Structure formats: C-alpha cells, structure tokens
Known about the structure:
Strand content: under 5%
Shape: globular
Order of helices and strands: HHHHEEEHHHHHHHHHH
Largest sheet: 3 strands, antiparallel
Amino acid sequence: MPALSRADTSLLGRWWWSLDRWTLIAIGVLIGFGYVMMLAASPAVAERIGQSRDVFILKQLGFLALAGGVVVTVSWLSPRGVRRLALLLGIIALALTALTLVAGVEIKGARRWIALPGLSVQPSEFLKPCFAVLTAWLLATRHRRPGFPGTLLACGALVPIALLLKAQPDIGMLTVVVAVFVAQLYLDGLNLFLVGLALAGMAGAGVGAFYLFPHVHSRVERFLHPAVGDNYQVITALQAFGHGGLLGRGPGEGSVKDILPDAHADFVFAVAGEEFGMVVCLLILGVFAFVVVRGLLRLRGEGDGFVVLAAGGLITSFGLQAFVNMASSLHLIPTKGMTLPFISYGGSSVLAVALGIGMLLALTRRRHHGDLA
C-alpha cells in the first residue's frame, strides 16, 4: 500500500486514517498464529484419520485468507451498512439453523451442521454477530423514538434463536448469545437489580440444563470429579502444558497432537503450550485481551447509542469465546466445543468471527462529517 497522508481525502485515505489500525494489526497477528498452529497441529490429526497431511492446512489457509478479506471488506461499511448486512445475514443464518434440525449432519448427538461438498457449515455461528448488531439497533431505537418497544422486540428476537439452539442442542452457543444480550442490556442502562435477576435466571437455566441434557450433565460431572468418567482430552491437554514449560519443546517436537483427537480444533491452545511454552501462550492471551480492551477504549466519548451497544456486544462475544476455549483447555471450566478465534481449525467459526471483527472495525471508525449514519 502506498504511503497515505493524513491530508488524503480519497476514499482509501479516509478509510485508513479513520480505522483502528492497532486492532487490525492484532487480528493479523492472530491470523498468523492460526496458520502457524495449523502447521504444528493438523498433520498428525489428518494422518490419524487417514487423510493427506496437508488437508487441514490447505483448507484453513483458504479460510484464513478469506477471513482477512472479510475483515477488511466489512470494515469499509457505514453503521447503516452494518445494520443492513446484519439483518440480511441474520435472516439467512436463522433459516439455515432451522434447516439443520431436518437436514443437518448429526455429529456427537447434535445437529448443528449442513453438509456441503468438501466441508460442513455451522450457520448458528453467524447468528452471534448478527444478533448483537440487530438487538443493539432495536435497543438504541427505543431511545430515539419514545414508545418504540425496542427491549420487547429484542427479547422476542432472542426467543426463536434460543429455541433452535436448544433443539440442536448447542447449550454453549446459547449461553454466549444470552450473555452478550445481557451485557448489551447492562450497557443500555438496565437497572442493576434486573441485571442481577437476568444473571440469576441464567444460573437457573444452567442448573436446568445440567439435569435436562445428558451431555451437559456429563461434562459438569467430569469437571467436578476428574477421577470419574472420560477426561482423556483434558488430562492430556494439562500434561501438554506441563511438558511445554516456559519456552516449549520447540516447533514440531510436541507429542500431544499425536494422541489428542481435537488437537487442531478445540484443544489447539494445548499444542501451543507444549511446543511454544507459556511465553507464547501468554502472548496469545495478551493479543486477545488487547483487542477487547482496545475495542472498549475506542468507545469512549462515542455519542451514538447504537454503535456503543453493537460494538459492546461484538467485543463481549469475541472475548467470551476466547476465554471459554482457553479456560476449557486449562480445566478451569467444564469442556465446551468452542473454537479459539482465528487459531482453531474451522471455516464457519473463523468466517463468523471475521464478520464480527469487520463490523467492530466499521462501527468504531472515526466518522467524518457527511458519512452515512
């Protein structure tokens, strides 16, 4: 890219100087980590299931390149364009999520994926960023138009999503969506007492899920009583972190990827711990924390309620997903099949996260007079 002056008033110049370039760089670092971790973790997994050593690398390389393009392209949008894109993709994602219940591929007792030639798509992943933007629009409109039932409509929009995710079932995804919604309600000025009631309701729903869903019951029991049940992946992951120590055993020298079924996906953080050590793991954690904190600081002084609520929801979703993956790998919370953004293998996840980050960058750009709202 040629050098751009701050006085450059071209479309490219205005985009570049209004963009949060530090967050864009941090996302580029995460995408780079994702490529390195696929090189480290995926060949052994591919060989174990009888595939070519490079099958996951080549697929994820394409996904990561496409994700980078999505981040940059979506970041050009105005807030109005972000709303329109969220509405269009949200409707499509909701319809496809419903389709999984009748024509989806069942994996480990759950119907979350639609099979396409060469890959499977999890449409519910795209509901997270789209729902965060749409609920932010509904809540913000309530303040601009007295009498508009924004909160009621936002709660109504949550109902079909919750029912579909429960039916799949995908309790982890449902928990993230509800947590993001509660965070937006808090940012919108919801009374702290009502926020407490919402959190209590989430806790009650968690207890209900423990008794109603066998896979949730099993995961919680295995977390509380590690000696009972199959904790092979978690125990192996913890051993990997122990073997890695401070600086790791070196690239390609780890053994966990040879025996851990989800080494390239849900437990890729354990591979990073064994081969690159605690220092690199802390660096990865620091990059995620930087994106979250930077996004929140970017909202200081923002006068548009829609931007604050939408960006806050997107940041919460991104940070919560990263936390759940890393905490699961370290056995700090019960295991949950949730990817580490941009680093774990998975096309649907990386593209959905890229969509959310692109929306975040678009919303937090410094607007010039005359830009579309």
